[in-house]
Amino acid sequence: MTRLSLRSLAAALALLLAAAARSQADPVNWQYNATPGATNVFSDNAGDTTSRVIFSNEGEVQRTDNTFITAANLSTESNQAVGSKAVFTNRAFSFTVAFRDGWDLVNPNGLATQILTFHGTVSGTLWDHGSRLTYTLSDPTQQITVGNHTYTLDFDTTGRIPGPHDNSRQGSISGDVSVQGVDNGGGGGTPHDSPEPGTAVLAGFGLLGLAGVGYRRLTATR
User: 199 or 161: which carries more pLDDT confidence?
Assistant: First the structure.
Protein backbone atom coordinates (compact mmCIF):
# COMPACT_ATOMS: atom_id res chain seq x y z
CA MET A 1 0.00 0.00 0.00
CA THR A 2 1.42 3.35 -1.00
CA ARG A 3 1.49 6.43 1.18
CA LEU A 4 -1.00 8.06 -1.21
CA SER A 5 -3.55 5.25 -0.92
CA LEU A 6 -3.18 5.31 2.87
CA ARG A 7 -3.96 9.01 2.86
CA SER A 8 -6.95 8.40 0.59
CA LEU A 9 -8.28 5.79 2.98
CA ALA A 10 -7.86 8.16 5.92
CA ALA A 11 -9.72 10.90 4.03
CA ALA A 12 -12.57 8.54 3.16
CA LEU A 13 -12.87 7.44 6.77
CA ALA A 14 -12.93 11.06 7.91
CA LEU A 15 -15.81 11.76 5.53
CA LEU A 16 -17.66 8.68 6.80
CA LEU A 17 -17.29 9.77 10.42
CA ALA A 18 -18.41 13.30 9.58
CA ALA A 19 -21.50 11.96 7.80
CA ALA A 20 -22.35 9.77 10.79
CA ALA A 21 -21.98 12.73 13.13
CA ARG A 22 -24.25 14.87 10.95
CA SER A 23 -26.86 12.11 10.86
CA GLN A 24 -26.84 11.93 14.64
CA ALA A 25 -27.03 15.71 14.99
CA ASP A 26 -30.01 16.32 12.69
CA PRO A 27 -33.32 15.51 14.42
CA VAL A 28 -36.60 15.05 12.58
CA ASN A 29 -38.98 17.82 13.65
CA TRP A 30 -42.69 17.22 13.08
CA GLN A 31 -46.00 18.15 14.64
CA TYR A 32 -49.48 16.69 14.85
CA ASN A 33 -53.05 17.65 15.64
CA ALA A 34 -55.53 14.99 16.75
CA THR A 35 -59.24 15.83 16.42
CA PRO A 36 -62.21 13.73 17.65
CA GLY A 37 -64.97 13.01 15.18
CA ALA A 38 -67.48 13.89 17.91
CA THR A 39 -66.90 15.43 21.32
CA ASN A 40 -69.39 13.14 23.10
CA VAL A 41 -70.21 9.44 22.90
CA PHE A 42 -73.53 8.75 24.65
CA SER A 43 -74.97 5.55 26.13
CA ASP A 44 -77.49 3.19 24.50
CA ASN A 45 -80.40 5.04 26.14
CA ALA A 46 -81.38 7.83 23.73
CA GLY A 47 -83.20 9.62 26.55
CA ASP A 48 -80.07 9.77 28.73
CA THR A 49 -78.23 12.89 27.60
CA THR A 50 -75.94 12.99 30.63
CA SER A 51 -74.09 9.67 30.61
CA ARG A 52 -71.28 10.18 28.15
CA VAL A 53 -67.62 9.79 27.30
CA ILE A 54 -66.04 13.16 26.51
CA PHE A 55 -63.25 13.37 23.91
CA SER A 56 -60.90 16.36 23.92
CA ASN A 57 -57.65 17.13 22.11
CA GLU A 58 -54.50 19.14 22.78
CA GLY A 59 -54.28 21.24 19.60
CA GLU A 60 -51.06 21.51 17.61
CA VAL A 61 -48.23 19.65 19.35
CA GLN A 62 -44.58 19.64 18.27
CA ARG A 63 -42.47 16.51 18.51
CA THR A 64 -38.98 15.31 17.51
CA ASP A 65 -38.00 11.84 16.24
CA ASN A 66 -39.69 8.69 17.57
CA THR A 67 -41.99 9.37 20.52
CA PHE A 68 -45.35 8.73 22.19
CA ILE A 69 -48.33 10.99 21.47
CA THR A 70 -51.81 11.52 22.95
CA ALA A 71 -54.56 11.44 20.32
CA ALA A 72 -57.46 12.05 22.72
CA ASN A 73 -58.06 12.79 26.38
CA LEU A 74 -61.01 10.87 27.82
CA SER A 75 -63.30 11.83 30.69
CA THR A 76 -66.82 10.77 31.65
CA GLU A 77 -70.03 12.18 33.08
CA SER A 78 -73.11 10.45 34.48
CA ASN A 79 -75.90 11.04 37.01
CA GLN A 80 -77.02 7.41 37.00
CA ALA A 81 -77.06 5.65 40.36
CA VAL A 82 -75.37 2.28 40.79
CA GLY A 83 -78.75 0.53 40.53
CA SER A 84 -79.42 2.00 37.08
CA LYS A 85 -76.06 2.06 35.34
CA ALA A 86 -75.85 3.53 31.87
CA VAL A 87 -75.00 0.85 29.29
CA PHE A 88 -72.72 1.38 26.29
CA THR A 89 -72.81 -1.32 23.61
CA ASN A 90 -70.25 -0.84 20.84
CA ARG A 91 -70.89 2.90 20.75
CA ALA A 92 -68.91 4.15 17.74
CA PHE A 93 -66.34 6.94 17.73
CA SER A 94 -63.58 8.16 15.46
CA PHE A 95 -60.71 10.62 15.48
CA THR A 96 -58.16 11.94 13.01
CA VAL A 97 -54.45 12.59 13.41
CA ALA A 98 -52.94 15.20 11.09
CA PHE A 99 -49.18 14.73 10.66
CA ARG A 100 -47.16 17.75 9.56
CA ASP A 101 -43.57 17.46 8.33
CA GLY A 102 -41.73 20.28 10.14
CA TRP A 103 -42.50 22.87 12.82
CA ASP A 104 -44.78 25.88 12.42
CA LEU A 105 -47.36 26.69 15.09
CA VAL A 106 -48.25 30.02 13.45
CA ASN A 107 -49.17 28.58 10.05
CA PRO A 108 -49.38 24.78 10.46
CA ASN A 109 -51.37 24.37 7.24
CA GLY A 110 -48.35 25.68 5.36
CA LEU A 111 -46.47 22.49 6.21
CA ALA A 112 -46.74 19.25 4.24
CA THR A 113 -49.71 17.52 5.90
CA GLN A 114 -51.43 14.15 5.68
CA ILE A 115 -54.28 12.81 7.83
CA LEU A 116 -54.98 9.38 9.30
CA THR A 117 -58.47 8.40 10.53
CA PHE A 118 -59.00 5.87 13.33
CA HIS A 119 -62.22 4.13 14.36
CA GLY A 120 -63.33 2.51 17.59
CA THR A 121 -66.15 1.59 19.94
CA VAL A 122 -66.96 2.14 23.62
CA SER A 123 -68.56 -0.67 25.64
CA GLY A 124 -69.42 -1.29 29.29
CA THR A 125 -71.29 0.49 32.04
CA LEU A 126 -71.08 3.94 33.65
CA TRP A 127 -72.69 5.49 36.72
CA ASP A 128 -72.26 8.47 39.00
CA HIS A 129 -69.52 6.88 41.11
CA GLY A 130 -67.95 4.30 38.87
CA SER A 131 -67.09 2.99 35.44
CA ARG A 132 -66.54 -0.32 33.73
CA LEU A 133 -65.96 1.23 30.33
CA THR A 134 -63.36 0.22 27.78
CA TYR A 135 -62.58 1.43 24.28
CA THR A 136 -61.51 -0.77 21.36
CA LEU A 137 -59.82 0.42 18.17
CA SER A 138 -60.51 -1.46 14.95
CA ASP A 139 -57.53 -0.01 13.05
CA PRO A 140 -54.90 0.68 15.72
CA THR A 141 -51.81 0.68 13.47
CA GLN A 142 -51.52 2.87 10.39
CA GLN A 143 -48.75 4.43 8.30
CA ILE A 144 -48.53 7.55 6.16
CA THR A 145 -45.85 9.41 4.21
CA VAL A 146 -45.62 13.17 4.69
CA GLY A 147 -42.94 15.23 2.99
CA ASN A 148 -39.62 13.43 3.36
CA HIS A 149 -40.67 11.04 6.13
CA THR A 150 -42.95 8.08 6.76
CA TYR A 151 -44.83 8.03 10.07
CA THR A 152 -46.13 4.82 11.65
CA LEU A 153 -48.66 5.32 14.45
CA ASP A 154 -49.35 2.33 16.70
CA PHE A 155 -52.05 2.42 19.43
CA ASP A 156 -52.97 -0.19 21.99
CA THR A 157 -56.04 -2.03 20.70
CA THR A 158 -58.01 -1.58 23.93
CA GLY A 159 -57.92 0.62 27.02
CA ARG A 160 -59.90 1.59 30.12
CA ILE A 161 -61.92 4.78 30.57
CA PRO A 162 -62.09 6.28 34.11
CA GLY A 163 -65.35 6.97 35.95
CA PRO A 164 -66.87 10.42 36.63
CA HIS A 165 -65.82 10.30 40.29
CA ASP A 166 -62.18 10.35 39.20
CA ASN A 167 -62.03 12.93 36.42
CA SER A 168 -58.90 14.47 37.92
CA ARG A 169 -57.18 11.41 36.43
CA GLN A 170 -58.32 11.49 32.83
CA GLY A 171 -57.84 8.56 30.56
CA SER A 172 -56.31 8.88 27.12
CA ILE A 173 -55.77 7.18 23.80
CA SER A 174 -52.02 7.28 23.35
CA GLY A 175 -49.80 5.80 20.68
CA ASP A 176 -46.22 5.26 19.61
CA VAL A 177 -44.98 7.15 16.54
CA SER A 178 -41.98 5.85 14.57
CA VAL A 179 -40.41 8.17 12.00
CA GLN A 180 -38.51 6.86 8.98
CA GLY A 181 -36.82 8.71 6.14
CA VAL A 182 -38.27 8.20 2.68
CA ASP A 183 -36.03 6.10 0.44
CA ASN A 184 -35.73 7.92 -2.89
CA GLY A 185 -33.19 5.51 -4.28
CA GLY A 186 -30.34 6.87 -2.23
CA GLY A 187 -31.07 4.94 0.92
CA GLY A 188 -33.40 5.68 3.80
CA GLY A 189 -34.01 4.45 7.28
CA THR A 190 -34.89 5.83 10.64
CA PRO A 191 -33.35 9.13 11.75
CA HIS A 192 -30.87 7.26 13.91
CA ASP A 193 -30.07 4.23 11.77
CA SER A 194 -26.47 5.40 11.34
CA PRO A 195 -23.93 3.93 13.76
CA GLU A 196 -23.56 5.66 17.09
CA PRO A 197 -20.67 8.15 16.91
CA GLY A 198 -18.61 6.09 19.35
CA THR A 199 -19.10 2.94 17.28
CA ALA A 200 -18.21 4.72 14.06
CA VAL A 201 -15.07 6.20 15.61
CA LEU A 202 -13.92 2.79 16.89
CA ALA A 203 -14.57 1.23 13.49
CA GLY A 204 -12.62 4.01 11.82
CA PHE A 205 -9.64 3.60 14.12
CA GLY A 206 -9.72 -0.16 13.52
CA LEU A 207 -9.59 0.26 9.75
CA LEU A 208 -6.84 2.84 10.03
CA GLY A 209 -4.90 0.47 12.27
CA LEU A 210 -5.22 -2.39 9.79
CA ALA A 211 -4.13 -0.09 6.98
CA GLY A 212 -1.12 1.03 9.03
CA VAL A 213 -0.07 -2.56 9.76
CA GLY A 214 -0.33 -3.42 6.08
CA TYR A 215 1.72 -0.38 5.13
CA ARG A 216 4.50 -1.18 7.65
CA ARG A 217 4.71 -4.78 6.43
CA LEU A 218 4.89 -3.61 2.84
CA THR A 219 7.68 -1.12 3.52
CA ALA A 220 9.59 -3.70 5.62
CA THR A 221 9.81 -6.07 2.66
CA ARG A 222 11.25 -3.44 0.32
Answer: 161
